[in-house]
Amino acid sequence: MDRGRTGSKHHLITDATGIPLAATLTGGNRNDVTQLIPLLQAVPPVRGKRGRPRRRPDVVLADRGYDHDKYRRLVWVLGVKPLIARRGTEHGSGLGIQRWVAERAFAHVHWFRHLRIRWEIRDDIHEAFLALGCALSCWRRLRRSRGSAG
């Protein structure tokens, strides 16, 4: 853990295709696992083909930074299956194949210079830029998929 790290961290939850569903901002010295439950609770209802809109995903994939038994239990209580890499195990667990989707989403959001380098002092302004970056990332994805379909 980087207790003395300055700056801020972006935490992001995406769907299976990399579209951002929720994002939070914390200080750079905060542990990643503290944002797991708030991110899951921040996911808005997503309408499926029919029935009631889904509120939470079936499965959550996460890297070793989110490995903590207490939070695994809390994720199960929310009705979500946690697939979280264990600390101390060898790399190559197979989660990296799916985790790159989230890493790519971070890269798309960090294309915006205001998010890659934090210039704002106020958190609310930086959070607004984070929300705008996620929205523009979704818009770009939708525009690209419409262009290839027609």
TrEMBL record:
InterPro entries: Transposase_11. Transmembrane segments: none annotated. Residues 3-136 form the Transposase IS4-like domain. It comes from the Bacteria. Pfam families: DDE_Tnp_1. NCBIfam families: transpos_IS5_3. This is IS5 family transposase. It comes from Streptomyces olivaceiscleroticus.
